[in-house]
Amino acid sequence: DGSMTTVHANTARDALGRLEQMVTMLGADIPARTIRGQIASAIHVIVQLSRLSDGSRKVMSISEIAGMENDVVTLQDIFLFRKTGKTEKGEVLGETYFTGVRPRFFEAFEAAGLNTKGLLLNERGKIE
Questions:
Q1: 96 closest CA partner among 77, 73, 69
Q2: For the chain, percent helix, then strand, then coil, each to nearest 5?
Q3: Cβ–Cβ < 8 Å for 46, 62
Q4: Are 60 and 80 contacting, i.e. CB atoms less than 8 angstroms apart?
Q5: How far is CA 65 from CA 30, 62, 78, 108, 123, in A?
Q6: What pLDDT digit, counting tens, does each position of 95-116 carry?
Q7: Which of 1, 39, 72, 99 is the most exposed place for a label (fewest CB within 10 A)?
Q8: Does the CA dihedral 118-120-122-125 come out positive or negative?
Q9: pLDDT grade, residue 9 (50/70/90)?
Q10: 39 by DSSP, 3-state: which?
Q11: What is the tens place of the pLDDT at every residue in 10-41?
C-alpha cells in the first residue's frame, strides 16, 4: 500500500488538473468524469511544497482527497502553512497548523492498532 510521485503544480487542485491533462494527452477517448474518478480512488494524500521568497522550501499544505462530488474531485486540507513575517535577513517566518479536519486515513491507522489521539498536534494545534 503505497507509492510516491512528483507533479509540478502550484496547488493541490492544480496537480489534479495536470494529472487529468496527462491522461487526456494519451489520446484515449475516456470521459473526464471517469478520469477524475480514477484519480480520486488512486490518490489519497497530496503534499504541496513551495519555494518561498527567501529561497527556502516549505510544506505549504497536506491535503486529502475526500472523493467525488458530482464531477469534481473533492479535497480537504489537513495542514496548512501560514506565513507570519520575515526576519531582518529576509527569511520567511511561519507555522504549519492543523486545520481540524480529521484525516480519513486515521481509520486505517486505528485498525492497525495505532493510537491517533495526540499524534498530530501539540496543545496549540501546531505540528510537533
A1: 77
A2: 25, 35, 40
A3: yes
A4: yes
A5: 21, 10, 10, 15, 27
A6: 988 888 888 888 888 899 888 8
A7: 1
A8: negative
A9: very high
A10: helix
A11: 999 999 999 999 999 988 889 999 999 999 99
